[in-house]
Design a protein that fits this description.
The complex is a heterodimer of chains A (1205) and B (488).
Chain A (H helix, E strand, L loop, with lengths): L5 E2 L9 H7 L3 E5 L11 E6 L2 E7 L24 H4 L9 E3 H13 L3 H9 L2 H8 L7 E3 L2 H18 L5 E4 L7 H14 L2 E3 L11 H6 L16 E5 L3 H4 L4 H9 L3 E5 L12 E3 L6 H19 L3 H10 L5 E7 L2 E7 L20 E3 L4 E3 L5 H5 L31 E9 L4 E14 L2 E7 H8 L23 H8 L3 H18 L3 E5 L1 H4 L4 H14 L9 E4 L9 H8 L10 E2 L1 H8 L8 H7 L13 H10 L13 H10 L5 H13 L19 E5 L11 H9 L30 E6 L4 H5 L2 E4 L8 E3 L6 E5 L12 H19 L4 E7 L32 E7 L4 H6 L3 H6 L1 E3 L2 E3 L2 H10 L2 E4 L2 E4 L4 H11 L5 H15 L5 H4 L8 H6 L2 E2 L20 H6 L17 H6 L12 H4 L11 E7 L15 H6 L6 E3 L1 H6 L7 E6 L2 E9 L7 E3 L60 E7 L7
Parallel strand pairs in A: 7-8, 7-22, 8-21, 9-10, 9-19, 10-11, 19-20, 22-23, 23-24, 34-38, 35-37
Antiparallel strand pairs in A: 2-3, 3-4, 5-6, 5-24, 12-13, 12-18, 14-15, 16-17, 17-18, 25-26, 26-33, 27-28, 29-30, 31-32, 34-39, 35-38, 36-37, 36-39
Helix pairs in contact in A: 3-4, 4-6, 6-27, 7-19, 7-27, 11-15, 11-16, 11-18, 15-16, 19-31, 23-24
Chain B lengths: L2 E10 L8 H10 L12 E5 L11 H4 L3 E3 L5 E3 L4 H5 L11 H4 L3 E3 L3 H4 L11 E3 L36 H7 L8 E5 L8 H5 L5 E4 L5 E3 L9 H5 L5 E4 L4 E4 L4 H4 L6 H4 L6 E9 L3 H5 L6 H8 E2 L4 H9 L4 H8 L2 H8 L4 E2 L10 E4 L7 E4 L2 E4 L14 H8 L4 H22 L5 H11 L3 H12 L3 H4 E2 L5 H5 L17
Parallel strand pairs in B: 1-15, 12-18
Antiparallel strand pairs in B: 1-12, 2-7, 3-4, 5-6, 8-9, 10-11, 12-13, 14-15, 16-17
Helix pairs in contact in B: 16-17, 17-18
The chains are: A alpha/beta (1205), B alpha+beta (488).
């Protein structure tokens, strides 16, 4: 082996310089990837010879204590981001749709004024159709920024003048990842009076159970805290693939003795990394958790109660609260919570309808503990805390979890077996209480829960004989028929779970992802799992809790950011729209839905009129009653309403509002949602930035194409709503509601391809911005490693340029300040969440129409179109006056505001000086200065404000970090750890990992719910009617109910499959998935995964071209056949584009195959539309129905012949 | 003794999430250019699977690596140098582009330039080699996530060691096996590529043992490509030269971990210097198959031994390198803990990348549509889906006892940590597991610390750079760094 010689001699190795020179670079700039992906990974961007050559992960996150380090963060997708910069996919210049350019230039030749020109174009139906019908079909023309902006500004001014500002809508998702890029657009929209569309609920990322249980949008542990968990159940979640930079914590926890259990129908990347893979059937996790809870309650609460579990429930949940039982035909049903107002002793309490009773074992009587919603909003501050003290005399309360000891009676209480379609009466111990409506039997929620789960205690009624009783919900044997999982496994899971929690005081967690959250009954599945956490004291503990990482993610410096992004420094309230309602209504997906089937989607407990009716009618009621927002607001311009009111003699704002209410009551003014297909109700101009609104974000994509864009589509679904709708006006289907679609984008994705105006956007390596996430607790920047390439601009600068153009045109068309009337729903974290104790509809005469109480609030706001640009770049005086805040908490900033205006950068106009936010970096510094998470003084002030409300010491948490300051340059040098802040619920001092609700459990700050505790029970009349007051199980809607295949013929060799779209490995939504690198590492396309036996039955081989079709549309792609996919399912990983390698569809007229969203039509769940009641109240991205789409079915078959391009 | 320093690595497969960040970062840095499109110096394979290039392990086809030659010698499997030279112009053991994949891109510009048509434009896939539309039928990671399991995973050469029944079970839901195998150049102690090169273009660097190929000396014979049993030498079709992983020496020399190590987001990669005695290579490489894992361990010298240190100094290894060797994670994994195994030791190249084998979940049973899983808090080796025979075919030349040993340690450590942190595992059970695994408390603690809490500087312990000595050759070299030198 003499030839294996080591070579040392340098001269012989001179060539080695070759690779050294490649590696050498000139500059390293810290940035990250700022939309879609919520990883929050800090990257070093290596610039060589003025070109971004490559990127590597930063590894300098400050260390936490007791957990593995965060380094490195960043995955295979982020690692190829730089290839976007110089890719032929890059949008380098403004582009305009050819037909639009022709029409515009012709109009401009006749009408020199741009607004007049636009009016002439959209005023002529022929001309308007000319660019609508060719949307998406090529024919782009390069244009100048000036011309493109002029078109956008002219259409905007025309729309504001003609239809009202709320016909201009904007969509951009997930601000946390590049919060200024989001804020630039939203600030512009809100200064205009336009509408920002939500995303978290639309994406089905919002777990409605979080508001239901915790009164919180979402709050989760940072991923390092996974390491502290000793039992982790991942469900609907594939963190090895979708949480790439955090997955190591799972496997490091495993090395540390943690058991990892994965609930997943397929052998996912994470399943194979688990100790225990439980292949429960898709969408049936809820049934499994219900049975787990049955075992936990039986063994760890009734047979051998664990003191820690019981004490936890008593203090931190609503389990000890009393519920009135209501008799119906000899059987009782759980009803409303017992309220202070109903009891003689507390009848005079302020907000007595929103203070609730427990049974005090000391007094042997009902008592009203502190911390409820009524205490939160009462005039006397300092009683909103979780001390178990009576609100009247301050005495300590010893609440009974169960009334079994000393019960006066046992009542048969009805529970509903929705799967078995029967009612079961189970005995519940009760006490009697004298109330203002007579003597009533009351039970604790805990006792009702035991009855609900069928955990018998030798009381009357029917309870399962054993775990093996397969007919009785919710036994381990019962769940087998839904999950396909053996009862013994479920019993083992329950025992291991509760056993671990008992030994560790709550270090069990659920890691949950989009795999669960997209089902119609996802909220019930979540509540089933959350119940297992609450029963074992796992929430508010490091290592415990529900870790939901889907979408949204945490915008840490939320208070000042929200002010800036909503332009609240100039006017409030903003127009924030829940997108599921918006698209369901405006893209006319409601027209394809039928009532009869909807009640099967969501079986009810109570065949009350309340639960009847078509979803569109539920939606209309929700708007009318102030539960949900809806824009456009009215069947005419909101500016016109004010004009008319004044013409009718209204002088003050109050008189304007009163006039509008009268018009509404008399039916002279109508909500646009009641007649959405009337021309006056259409949205007109749509601005899209940072997102893919027409494709990966367009559930019911083909309906978007038809009704919004007016171009070709592939839906063949019949319109079926006509016979069953009552309140909505039925018209001929409008095609092409939108006058103009504008997309700011760095890549030519499907949304750009279908837009009228495409503006070149700077990428994440070409702009300054801020990035935070809930996956970790650092803040770090995006920075310009190179200047915006070609003609691209950052989103902040683009909207600033547009604002300038709009201001110019407004000086002619809308020169003076003008009043606007804004409708705002009853909002969470405001006293309006006490507005509606009972369901009452003013339209039906059930109550008086009172804005902000029984109907939406109506607020008069001043717009100043000529000064939109000036307002955009100046941090306005309303922020100085109102302070900044979040979640119902605010603190003063006058001194800091003045200091910022003085020190500069500043803007001076109209004789006043303002802090400047003209540059994104200035806005970043302003946020860092005003946020408690980055400025110790602000944290200290915020905690002081919180102390006043809570009445317990809290500011000590901010004392030793009061001197901390952070600037944009600081985080450019190294990511900074956030500070503990009352805007959030963790305590993260001294390197402690963030876990949610620690502040609630350790410092007795209430949850923002009715009782101030975590809610197992929802006593809203709507939830009672639907049978969802307690955690329960409702069966998945069947294929016949969801109507995806009513007219699609099952010809040839095809197979019917449930179509699922989990998050994939080679893309972050649609980003990266169109890049050569990711497509090379996968299969060159976004294939349809299916089981090998299923594929055989349809004559499909691996890599064959296939069509997946249903009534809504078609996907053409290749099959990826694998035994790791269970039978009956088809996966297409979210989210493909039409733009990359998609052939035409022979079955749908040779049109281009669609995207995954082509196969969906959204279905809104009416229980999620309720509002005006405690935590069941609207806030942007916090509450409302989700755009769920997982219960969809398709036919899959081999493509006829060779693919046609 | 002829003591040499070698940079050697460990990949902890129980932590590997199969994300390919390593591959992408490597690609961006080194092979993102014409002629190198098909090259993935670092790749990650889904197992069971075909690998990249397809069925690279099948040496019946490729004749890579070494085979025993008598009792204490080895010879290149492809034959002697003369024999190989005679096949230079016709080498059937050379992979074709189809064994890799035909690289492709998309006609993105059509999205901008397409004239108004009857439907929306789409960017068609086109070959990177011909520029013509391509029907994509393979890629460098084609069977990832068990894609096409029946056609691809089933043809994994490693499954040949199994019976038909065992093979079928591995691909059925209840026992299905799946894990990731990242691969780079092994920078072997006994590299076949170096031995096979007729031009002397490939060599091991004296200071760190990295195997590099000098394009100036390369004549494009490609015998390195065929003789590397791991198929980690590639042919650049634009330059006509061979290329391979360079161990990121420009980074190592500057004290920075190789890109694939620094970027490993699963934190599975460990690297350090080991010392070995070059005079023992032939003997160790020719051991019987069942003894090859032991041979790999035997190669590594104890850096704490005074004799080894003295011999190392005598061979020109500096104190600083010896010091780095003492702190080497690789030495600990392979020799101190017996936790990491070589990939295909039967290729007899003495690879310098070692693998901690992956745990897998419990097996299940299914009856009448109801799935039931084996009992227990943690799976044992026997109750888990770990296919020991297959693992042994990969990492121990079929020696199942060697393949099982690391598993017993991984499991024992988890039991110990569970007992410590939760307490539902008894001390007795932990003690029994430690004995069965031949594990001491100190080693368990050290393994736990390194595999759980380590920072990059703990995972990658580089030898000190030696560039200053190299620069002595040129007067005033400091100011010339980065400039092309004459002749360079």
């Amino acid at each position: 082996m003499s030839w294996v010689q080591d070579l040392v001699k340098p001269r012989a190795r001179d060539w080695e310089e070759l690779y050294r020179r490649r590696h050498q670079h000139d500059r390293v700039v810290r940035s990250t990837h700022g939309v879609n992906c919520t990883g929050g990974c800090s990257w070093n961007v290596h610039v060589k010879e003025g070109v971004v050559a490559f990127e590597t992960q930063a590894r300098d996150y400050p260390l936490l204590e007791g957990v593995p380090p965060y380094e490195p963060r960043g995955c295979q997708r982020g690692a190829c981001f730089s290839s976007y910069l110089y890719s032929p996919l890059r949008v380098k210049y403004p582009y305009l749709r050819g037909a639009l350019v022709d029409a515009w230039r012709a109009a401009k030749a006749k009408h020199p004024d741009p607004v007049d020109a636009w009016a002439s174009m959209v005023g002529d139906p022929e001309i308007r159709r000319s660019w609508q019908k060719v949307r998406g079909k090529g024919g782009f023309r390069r244009a100048s920024w000036d011309e493109a902006l002029e078109i956008v500004a002219a259409s905007t001014i025309h729309t504001v003048k003609t239809y009202g500002p709320d016909r201009v809508i904007g969509f951009s998702p997930i601000p946390a990842m590049s919060m200024l890029s989001f804020a630039g657009g939203s600030r512009y929209m809100q200064l205009l009076g336009g509408v920002n569309l939500s995303f978290y609920d639309w994406y089905c990322d919002l777990p409605n159970a979080s508001p239901q249980v915790w009164g919180e949008q979402t709050d989760v542990a940072e991923t390092a805290d996974w390491f502290n968990s000793k039992y982790i159940v991942a469900m609907g979640s594939n963190p090895d693939v979708t949480r790439t930079p955090s997955a190591h914590f799972l496997h490091e926890a495993r090395q540390d003795g943690t058991k990892l259990v994965v609930l997943s129908p397929d052998l996912s990347a994470t399943s194979k990394h688990a100790d225990w893979w439980i292949p429960a059937h898709a969408g049936q996790d809820g049934a499994l958790w219900m049975a787990v809870n049955h075992v936990i309650l039986r063994e760890f609460h009734v047979d051998q109660p664990v003191p820690y579990f019981q004490q936890y429930l008593r203090r931190f949940s609503d389990a000890p609260f009393l519920v009135e039982l209501e008799e119906k035909n000899g059987v009782f049903a759980a009803g409303r919570l017992l309220r202070a107002a109903s009891l003689a002793r507390s009848a005079k309490e302020e907000n007595g309808d929103f203070k609730f009773a427990v049974w005090d074992r000391t007094a042997d009587a009902p008592r009203i503990p502190l911390g409820s919603l009524g205490h939160r909003w009462q005039s006397k501050k300092g009683e909103w805390n979780l001390q178990m003290k009576d609100g009247i005399d301050g005495a300590e309360i010893d609440p009974a979890l169960s009334l079994l000891d000393g019960h006066e009676d046992v009542k048969l209480v009805e529970t509903i077996d929705f799967a078995g379609e029967r009612r079961i009466a189970r005995g519940v111990p009760v006490r009697y209480v004298d109330t203002d409506h007579g003597r009533v039997a009351v039970a604790t929620i805990y006792d009702l829960l035991l009855a609900q789960f069928g955990v018998g205690r030798d009381l009357r009624g029917e309870s399962p004989a054993s775990y093996d009783d397969a007919d009785a919900p919710f036994t381990p044997a019962w769940q087998e028929k839904f999950t396909g999982i053996d009862r013994a496994d479920v019993i083992r899971l329950a025992r291991e779970w509760a056993g671990t929690a008992a030994r560790t005081e709550g270090k069990c967690s659920i890691l949950i992802g989009a795999g669960v959250n997209h089902w119609y009954h996802a909220d019930l599945t979540y509540r089933a799992g959350i119940t297992a956490l609450l029963l074992c004291g796992c929430v508010g503990k490091n290592g415990g809790g529900l870790n939901h990482y889907v979408g949204q993610e945490k915008l840490a410096p939320v208070a000042p950011w929200a002010t800036l992004a909503g332009a609240l420094d100039w006017a409030r309230p903003p127009r924030f729209q829940n997108t599921p309602s918006f698209h369901y209504v405006h893209s006319d997906q409601w027209r394809y839905e039928r009532t009869a089937d909807e009640s099967q989607l969501n079986p009810t407990a109570d065949a009350a009129p309340f639960t009847h009716g078509h979803t569109i009618d539920h939606q209309i009621r929700a708007v009318r009653c102030g539960w949900l927002p809806f824009f456009p607001q009215f069947d005419r311009s909101s500016l016109e309403v004010v004009r008319d009111a004044r013409a009718a003699g209204a002088k003050t704002n109050e008189e304007i509002v009163a006039w509008a209410v009268k018009q509404l009551v008399e039916g002279k003014l109508r909500f646009a949602v009641e007649d959405p297909d009337a021309e006056a109700s259409w949205p007109r101009v749509w601005m899209i930035w940072r997102g893919n609104a027409l494709s990966s974000s367009a559930k019911g994509h083909e309906y978007f194409l038809r009704h919004y864009l007016g171009t070709d589509d592939s839906s063949i679904a019949p319109e079926t709503a006509k016979e069953s709708v009552k309140e909505v006006v039925w018209r001929d289907p409008p095609k092409g509601k939108l006058d103009l679609v504008v997309d700011m984008n760095f890549r030519m994705d499907t949304s750009a391809l279908f837009s009228d105006v495409v503006l070149p956007a700077a990428t994440f390596y070409e702009k300054d911005d801020l990035n935070t996430t809930d996956l970790h607790t650092y803040i770090h920047p995006l920075q310009a490693a190179v200047q915006p390439c070609w003609e691209s601009k950052s989103d902040w600068d683009s909207f600033e340029a547009l604002a300038e153009k709009v201001s110019q045109l407004a000086r002619v068309h809308l020169p003076d300040p003008i009043l606007d009337l804004v409708a705002v729903p009853l909002q969470h974290d405001t006293p309006a969440e006490m507005a509606q104790r009972e369901l009452a509809d003013w339209k039906k005469g059930e109550c008086a129409p009172v804005p902000g109480k029984t109907m939406p609030g109506l607020v008069v706001v001043e717009r100043d179109y000529a000064n939109i640009f000036q307002r955009f770049v100046s941090f306005g005086p309303a922020a100085r006056a109102s302070g900044v805040g979040a979640h119902g908490l605010s603190w003063p900033i006058e001194d800091v505001y003045d200091q910022m205006a003085k020190e500069g950068p500043s803007e001076t106009w109209g004789g006043k000086r303002y802090p400047s936010v003209a540059r994104a970096k200035d806005a970043a510094n302003l946020i860092l200065r005003l946020a408690p998470e980055t400025n110790g003084e602000m944290a200290w002030r915020a905690f002081h404000a919180e102390e006043k409300k809570v009445g317990l010491p809290l500011a000590d948490l901010a004392e030793h970090t009061r001197g901390v300051r952070t600037t944009f340059d600081d985080i450019g040098r190294q990511p900074r750890r956030l500070l503990t802040s009352p805007c959030w619920t963790g305590i993260i001092n001294d390197g402690r990992p963030y876990a949610p609700y620690v502040l609630n459990v350790e410092r007795l700050v209430p949850w923002r719910t009715l009782t101030g505790r975590q809610h197992l029970y929802l006593d809203h009349p709507g939830y009672l009617a639907y049978g969802e007051a307690l955690p329960t199980y409702k069966p998945r809607p069947s294929p016949s109910v969801v109507q995806d295949l009513t007219v699609t013929p099952q010809d040839g060799k095809s197979i019917r499959l449930n179509f699922l779209t989990p998050h994939g490995k080679w893309n972050i939504h649609s980003t990266y998935g169109d890049l050569e690198r990711m497509l090379t590492l996968s299969r060159g396309c976004h294939p349809l995964w299916m089981n090998d036996v299923d594929a055989d039955s349809a004559g499909i081989a691996d890599n064959d071209w296939v069509e997946a079709i249903n009534d809504h549309g078609v996907v053409v792609t290749r099959a990826c056949v694998s035994a790791r996919i269970p039978r009956g399912l088809a996966f297409q990983y979210h989210a493909p584009e039409r733009t990359v390698g998609v052939p035409r569809s022979p079955t749908r007229g040779g049109k281009r195959g669609g995207v995954h969203n082509s196969l969906f039509r959204v279905r809104l769940k009416p229980t999620l539309m309720l509002g005006g009641y405690g935590q069941i109240s609207y806030a942007f991205n916090y509450w409302g129905p989700t755009g769920n789409n997982r219960d969809a079915f398709v036919l899959v078959r081999k493509l006829d012949g060779a693919p046609r391009w | 003794m002829d003591v040499r320093a070698q940079i050697a690595s460990v990949f902890h497969l129980d932590k590997c999430i199969g994300c390919h960040t390593c591959s992408v970062v490597c690609k961006n840095l080194w092979t993102n250019r014409e002629g190198a499109e098909h090259m993935w110096w670092n790749n990650v394979e889904a197992r069971p699977g075909l690998g990249y290039p397809r069925r690279w392990e099948d040496q019946e086809k490729w004749s890579g690596g070494w085979e025993k030659d008598g009792d204490d010698g080895v010879k290149l499997k492809a034959g002697g140098r003369l024999g190989m030279l005679s096949r230079i112009f016709h080498n059937p053991a050379l992979p074709t582009i189809d064994d890799y994949y035909e690289p492709w891109t998309y006609q993105y510009k059509d999205l901008f330039d397409a004239p108004l048509g009857d439907t929306s434009p789409t960017a068609r896939p086109v070959s990177r080699l011909t520029g013509k539309p391509i029907d994509v039928k393979s890629g460098p990671n084609w069977d990832d996530d068990l894609a096409g399991s029946k056609e691809h995973a089933a043809k994994d050469p490693g499954l040949d060691a199994l019976t038909a029944t065992e093979r079928a079970a591995l691909l059925a839901t209840e026992r299905m096996t799946y894990f990731h195998l990242p691969r780079t150049c092994n920078h072997c102690a006994n590299p076949a590529c170096v031995a096979a090169c007729p031009s002397g273009a490939i060599y091991k660097r004296g200071e760190d043992g990295l195997v590099v190929s000098n394009p100036e000396a390369c004549r494009g014979w490609r015998l390195c490509v065929s003789s590397c049993p791991y198929k980690k030498v590639f042919f650049n079709h634009a330059t006509g030269k061979s290329e391979k992983c360079i161990g990121c020496y420009p980074r190592i020399e500057s004290g920075e971990a190789p890109a694939c190590f620094a970027s490993c987001v699963g934190r599975i990669r460990f690297q350090g210097v080991v010392l070995y005695d070059a005079t023992r290579l032939a003997e160790l490489a020719s051991r019987p198959e069942h003894d090859l894992v032991a041979a790999a361990r035997d190669l590594l010298l104890d850096p704490e031994s005074p004799e080894v240190q003295a011999a190392a100094r005598a061979s020109g290894v500096s104190d600083a390198v010896i010091d780095a060797a003492k702190r080497s994670p690789t030495y600990s994994f392979v020799k101190r803990w017996n936790l990491a195994l070589p990939l295909h030791p039967e290729f007899r190249t003495l690879p310098m990348v070692f693998y901690v084998p992956p745990l897998l979940p419990f097996v299940s049973e299914k009856e009448d549509g109801i799935t039931r899983t084996a009992d227990g808090l943690f799976a044992t080796l026997e109750s888990s889906r770990v296919p020991l025979k297959y693992i042994a075919a990969l990492f121990s030349a079929g020696n199942e006892a060697e393949a099982a040993a690391p598993y017993r340690k991984l499991l024992a450590i988890r039991l110990w940590r569970r007992a410590e942190t939760v307490g539902d595992v008894s001390r007795d059970e932990v003690a029994r597991a430690f004995i069965a695994a031949d594990l001491t408390q100190d080693d368990a603690a050290a393994i736990h610390e390194l595999t759980t809490f380590s920072r990059l500087e703990d995972r990658v312990v580089l030898p000190p750079g030696t560039r200053a000595e190299a620069l002595e050759e040129w007067d005033g070299a400091q100011g010339g760094i980065g400039f092309a030198r004459a002749g360079a």
